[in-house]
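Protein 1 of 2
SEQ + STRUCT:
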Amino acid sequence: MPVNSDKTKYLPSFISKMESAKLHPLVIDTFTYYYKKVISGATGLISNRDIKPVALDEIEDASRIKEYAESGREALRHAVIIKLNGGLGTSMGLTRPKSLLKVKNEKTFLEIIVRQAERCRVKLALMNSFSTHEDTIDALSMIKPSDSPLLFIQNKFPKILQQDLAPATWPQNPDLEWNPPGHGDIYSAIYTSGVLHSLLKNGIEYAFISNSDNLGATMDESLLGYFSENKLPFMMEVVPRTPSDVKGGHIARHINGSLILRESAQCPQDEMDAFKDIKRYRFFNTNNIWTNLKALEKLIEKHNTINLPIIKNQKTLDPRNENSPKVFQVETAMGAAISLFEGAAAIRVPPSRFFPVKKCNDLLAIRSDRFVFSKKDNLILNPSIGSRSITIVLDPKYYGKIDSFDERFAEGIPSLIDCESLTIDGDVRFEKNVTIKGEVVIKNSGKSQAVIKQGSVIDKDVIPS
């Protein structure tokens, strides 16, 4: 569809707005590319007719690459760990960076990440957002890492009014006129900040990128060795999809032959059943990404931008006001770069490399005895666990926000080492040294808080009187 000339008239306003915000020309060029997609009617949708499933034998299994560990140890001095550190964790009721949440043994995500990088003697870099940058700097001054991490800040894009595709304005809170561009912005941000140039100048070529809330995503010598020895430009870690992953992005093979990532927001509504079919689209993107920085620099400088597949999210301008104007937020996914690099690969990793904390349900499992620290300060599954998987469903009214969650487990987290599933419905507080085994439902329908007494061993459903 050709670009509508009546709507291109707003493009200079967008450019002026971004220039006034002192955004880098590459960022402005990138947004311009996406804006032209929007005004031409592009949806960013990826249809089943354009892709086909990836077969099991197309993906290498990390369990078969142990012989690359020595090469990985040699490559460590040329590697960097990059953590996406821009989230505030508002869904958990946090108001500060999510990485400053105490997640295990009174240690925050950030403390654990810093110590992990120190243990393997690999440079650490953090991509912050404007909302997390200053608090992260303050926290690092308290942690006192032996080698200060490199810090750079995620960019921002202006929101687009759905009504006429003009720049959104909101005088009562101008900050709401902007949206984060998604974690796909990392490639532009690392380039425009100068961090990419600095890393390459210092002999750093291999980057392992992951979310700061996923403590399973550690520097792995076999994976690094496999990545470096095979001279891959890009590698995505994937795990088999489970019923709980049906909304997450999956990989597929584009009809042109390249691997591609499809997020749920990119799937046509009438094809969602196929999207959720875990037997058809088998592999889930963990957002653990390996990138060759030389290849990344070459790609960016060839095009003077990095044009990832567009995700056009429909939102209200003020997310807390459903009556505020409807807008488009242009975003991209980091893993979508798999389709841009010739020779990009995916590798199947164990689920232990993917246990992010998105909700308090996840936090309960991490804080429990199901997880322990290894000698290398890596958070791993307790070797003594009875079941390698667990399902936790906590009543969001009483456990959805971190303050309420902490109040109900103030005396300690129950032992879950032999628990397969735990559902808590209603207001329940736990005293210390509680053990939960098997599949358990605890349901409190009363108006007053129920209490699970000290030392209780629960191996069947409980309905407090």
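Protein 2 of 2
SEQ + STRUCT:
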Amino acid sequence: MAALQEYKCPCCGGALEFNSGVQKMKCPFCDSEFEMDALQAYDETLQNEGTDDYTWDTTPGSEWGAGEAESMRSYVCKSCGGEIIGDANTAATSCPYCGNPIVMMGQFSGTLKPDYVIPFKLDKEAAKKKFAAHLKGKKLLPKAFTQGNHIDEIKGIYVPYWLFDTDVDANIRYKCTKDQVWEDSRFRYKRTDFFSVSRAGNIGFDKVPVDGSSKMDDTLMESLEPYNFNEAVAFQTAFLAGYVADKYDVDAEASIGRANERVKRATEDAFRKTVQGYNGVNVENSAIRLSNGVAKYALYPVWLLNTTWNGQKFVFAMNGQTGKFVGNLPMDKGLYKQYLFKAAGIAALVAFAVEALVYFIM
């Protein structure tokens, strides 16, 4: 005896039943109704959906040529373990991550040669001005932070990035809703219709960046984007003069997970823009398949600013190419409470004004 197929409600996931009164499949839990043909087509769509396929070519890049690494030195921070590289003329300096002194460890070796570098376009003075501008207009910022704050350290550093290129073939299904609202003298009604909308197509991605340093906060680094890759050039050690470069400690293979997340999210968002005319659009299933996926190694310019206030360290960063500035600031709790009190007072005043207006109209 053949087993009966059970249909799940696309709206709430409950088991559907055939309702003889309406001659449709009906959900006993949310009362949604479905035509038999539409439900069968939906079931066929579910059975034919594929799965994600993320395949990348992470073959290592070029090695250092004869004599290229001889003018470079490796430095390590005894406090946080951060390792950076610089040229032979780099004097004793401090760690761009924690501010503690770093010591020269000797001849640089053991790292792949970067394929590209985006040279610094903005200098230290520009970073200082951006920091000052970043503080302006922040009403909840403690005055003592603005008046007594000083920058402990400003460092220009080349951050290692893995750049991922890939072509994407995607099938994405969205659950969409349309709402209708009406009312009579007694009640207010709302009807929600559910739709299953599918999109399929191809999209390409170039130079999806993932930072290759575990010491750099991924969210902070992504906040500095975008970089203009058109200004990237083939790497030369001369670009390190006056700066330091972080030695990557997260290789391309280990960066694939974050690259997949960014590609998947960007693909779903791009396809979602073609689904219009609905009140709600949510991804219900997506199948992302990659092809021609390759990773390259690049250095991107970043100014790091470290400052200390009330025993806390604050780290700010500026895109050394575009000048985009990011970083969290402390908040004055007293000013925040005053702000909430004022906001509550304004809301109460508006409510009182509306109530008075209704009173006078009546």
